[in-house]
Amino acid sequence: MERHSFAMELKEGKKNDYRRKLGEIWPELTAFLDQEKVHNFSIWNCDSLIFGYYETDENHEFSEEKKNQIQALTAKIEDTFTWISTPGENMRLMYHNFGVVRENKELIRHRMFMTKLKPGCKEEYKARHDGLVAAREGKIDPGPDSNFSIWSAGGYIFGYDEIDTTMETEETPEAHEATVAWETRQLGIMDWITNDCDWLTGEIHSASVRLAWHN
């Protein structure tokens, strides 16, 4: 399986138009996804930002004809947004913990978060998360995170996580202390857009909302 992502920013006052036009193209879009065997497609929103995630079979590539179909669909809605990522290309993968990916999504909880990197902090963010990957020493994480990836483009961070709810447990005092230390340190290199750390900072942000999903 290969994972893909994209991001865009809604033009001022165009959020309702984006949602309406997405609904208008949805039947044609989902038919295309089914035809091309694109799985686990979802679109998320917080404030003016849009994040998209989807999966394909390994080594899958769209033909030129299919790329033209994508462009034609995008043209019907592109007056509502500007691209953050490069169309047709993945954003930079900053972190991954794919673990044991669950085919059955009924007991999966999704978490999607967004942050804005402080100037010059992109490589520091990547290095810190490379350290987390290295600490696993190549071992498969059984969960509860089962399909966790973090992407970056245009100075933004977009995280997508599928969490097995049957494996979740309450955070221990020691784990909470470690979480506070990590998130406090992260505040030195990024600012939150979603509300994931409002409990720590006392600030108020919007939650990410899944606008659309197609399996």
Main sheet: strands, sense, barrel: 5 strands, antiparallel
Structural class by sheet pairing and helices: alpha+beta
* Helical run tally: 5
Q: Give the overall average pLDDT.
A: 94
Helix content: 25-40%
Radius of gyration equals 18 Å
Protein name: L-rhamnose mutarotase
GO molecular function, one term: L-rhamnose mutarotase activity
Keywords: Isomerase
Enzyme class: isomerase
What does this structure look like?
By secondary structure, the chain is an alpha+beta fold. It has 5 helices and 10 strands. It is globular. About 20% of the residues are buried. GO terms for molecular function: L-rhamnose mutarotase activity. InterPro entries: Dimeric_a/b-barrel, Rham/fucose_mutarotase.
Briefly characterize the structure.
By secondary structure, the chain is α+β, with helices and mostly antiparallel strands.
Write the layout of secondary structure elements.
Layout: E1 2-10, H1 15-35, E2 39-46, E3 49-56, H2 64-75, E4 81-83, E5 92-97, E6 108-117, H3 122-135, E7 148-153, E8 156-164, H4 173-186, E9 190-192, H5 198-201, E10 209-214
Antiparallel strand pairs: 1-3, 1-4, 2-3, 2-10, 5-7, 6-8, 6-9, 7-8
